[in-house]
Amino acid sequence: MTSLLKLTKKDFTSDQEVRWCPGCGDFAILAMVQKLMPELNIPRENIVFVSGIGCSSRFPYYMNTYGFHGIHGRAPAIATGLKMARPELTVFVVTGDGDSLSIGGNHLIHALRRNIDLKILLFDNRIYGLTKGQASPTSELGKKTKSSPFGTVDRPFNPMTLALGAGATFVARTVASDTAHMTQILRRAALHKGAAFVEIWQNCPVFNDGAFDDWSERDVREEQLIKLEHEKPLVYGKARDKGLLIGGGFSLERGSAAGALVHDEARDNVALAMALASLEPPYPQPVGVLRAVSRPTVDALAREQELELAAASTKPATLESLLNSGDTWNVSGEIG
Amino acid sequence: MDASSAPRRAARNLEHAVVRFAGDSGDGMQLTGTEFTREAAMHGNDLATFPDFPAEIRAPAGTTAGVSGYQIQFASHEVFSAGDQPDTLVAMNPAALKVHLQDLKKGGLLILNEAAFTEGDLKRAGWAANPLTDHSLDGYRLIQIDFEKLVSLAVEGLGLPTKDAARCKNFFALGLVFWLYSRETKREEESIKSRFAKTPALAQGNLRAFKAGYFYGETTEAADAPYQIAPAKLQHGRYRNVMGSTGLALGLIAAAQKSGLRLFFGSYPITPASDVLHELAKHRRFGITTFQAEDEIAAVASAIGAAFGGALGATASSGPGMALKSEAIGLAVIVELPLVIINAQRGGPSTGLPTKTEQSDLFQAVYGRNGECPLPVLACRSPADCFDTVFEAARIAIEYRTPVIVLSDGAIGNGTEPWLLPDVDSLPAIDPKLAVDPAGFMPYSRDEKLARPWAIPGTPGLEHRVGGLEKDFVTGNVSYDPQNHERMTHVRAEKVARIADQYPPLQVAGDPEGEVLVISWGGTYGSVTQGMMEARAAGARVGHLHLRHIFPLPHGLVDIVARYRSVLIPELNLGQLRLHLRGQLGIESQGLNKIQGKPFHVAEVRAAIEALAMKVAHARREIA
Predict the structure, then answer these.
(1) For a Cys staple, B358 with which of B271, B328, B347, B576, CB 3.0–4.6 Å?
(2) How far is A141 from chain B (nearest CA, A)?
(3) What is the ipTM of this complex?
């Protein structure tokens, strides 16, 4: 896609020095998003990046758009207010696993249930980076960190099932080390009308290096990941010979590609998306779009209702008439 | 037929009266009080009200915990408070009598629903003996009626179920009090018809109960009634009876209209602030976004996001919610965006007394955030003052690019009084001065007010980033430079301090010099004004200064204080304004402090003024 506005990646690059650690997965995401932006053909001034707190939340400083680096966990709430007030803007939320699933969990699920038109990019590195290495709500059970020297005893969230459970209309996962796939998924998210939730697996080389190696390294990717494609069979493996089939007890089973189930991201019912999202090793992990359905957005509904109210009212929308409504009287004696 | 057209005994003229309706939470006392208030307002009386109800929606029936009350003072002269002691108390059951009898004026009129004085109800209310028979009501004038029997007779033939018929008894009480004070019945009859329009049988039932109450008074010529209270000689103009919460909502709408901005109101349900959301939600056709957020933090955060987008962002809450919002309010301070935050104060700490009033969040508002985090704090003094206060708060927020806290309280929010409607054209326009010019644009450059540009998304060439990290003095980029941080801390403080330069001059009521200067703030205005007037009438030389601006404090305060021999600060807390004035200006004072979840009685304030005046005069004589 070419940009009618003739914008380039450079137009979206701010003059601020990028201060992530060398080797951080965030660099790849930033470069890719800056490259994707011109494609959207949206004037730069109509794009806003809102973030919370954490390594990933420095993202807006590096985008030459409008940006708001908020407070810990609250990015979806800030972005919701912005989008409700200015529905014509394109609003992205950049957040991390601690930011959005721990301190800001409440805002995330409510943004999703409302289907507010935000693009929520969750950079998941399964660790607290900026605070230097504590277990996060996506750290695997038993993870040894500074805050859990003997291993965590609390089970992690599965961001995908959480988002599906909250009623998200667009749920996807991608991997920062696979630029082509990430581009494709983020483009889909950007074009989705409604709350789009994308979990991006992203490596933290300092505090959780190699967290996704078992799935995302080039030599294992084909076997350990299953790339979801709409209306295509759920097959994986180097030879594309393995597939996912319907098993007993509402579960998916591994089998041969021949009998593989066909993926349908547009299903109203979330059962298949949930089953895919719930897969645990030795099953392959799904990447791609789990769910993409169309629903009215809360920002649009609110404006529609407002216009209907205005149209239905017989009184003029003037301050004078508002203040004078109800029982009024004149002190000169006559009753109004 | 129109009940008031019936002949009546000549009414006795009174200048003022205090009436309290009290009953079970389910007895409809708030409605009864509101209806009586509306008629008093339409009659042209000046008035003030004090609704007082439990936190529980339906506490166990018949217990003192479930008693709900509504007090009104109405008069042919200016009224400043809802009154200390009722002249007339309507008690729908033994529990209401138990709770409120102690407040009734000696010799006052007591209207009782006899039917509720059963053995079980007496026991539930904690009466050891029946007060109707043991002479404990001897000092009062008693009208003792079986409401339920008379109401059931009145509604006969309407086919109302017994339960619904019983629910009409508050209108019987209302009718009786209408007769007592010679009120017009026409408007009330219309009001009943329209309120219950969807259930015609209930409308008829309430109408009949209302008339039965009125006729009962007329027929029995109860007590030495009826009385009448002429309209008050108020300032000429058009009036409307307004609840504090409504005034706050209308003030926000007015500020949005006068600034040409969309109003965005993010809020989470909390007593006693929710009514502001309810009121605004009704008026969305004015270009208002109301957003019921998932929690208090999202409520304020969404308003900040909307402000970043160029809306007038606002939120309202009460103490516990304010605590949750404090981090985000700090964000609004550092990103320097307009925001109005209303705190309808209630008894604390923690959940405290959700439906009771208090003034204990002054420290929280002025000092309750991390870091050096100054912001303006205004306090409204009465329901009719809410509109002006919140309008000014919004103007300051927009012109200075700062969050502003407006302190209201439960009694102001739920209370009502006649409001002289402002002339819409004379309300000042508010210029949001949105930045549009990319030439030389710097997100943190400042104007003469020290306000930074408000550059909103959608404006080409002004793309910039804000956030909670310290900002460079000019570029607004993240800066960890030590000198810059100190400079930014000073400039944020100085910007807020300069707001005091544009306050109107302070007005002292009462004596311009003397023994006592009373300094008050917020909802104590009425009791303090009346207390001061009474103390002066009794010979004390007293001045009264009521502060709307809590922070920054107005100029000239110290000079005014110097004209008096002592300072009295009455507050519904343990002395927060006292410590604030001592810390900010070195003003020494005496406190009058009440922490009962109730407003001051005028008598309490007057007694404190007189005691201090006497003490000062005595000390003076000793020195002489």
Answers:
(1) B347
(2) 29
(3) 0.97
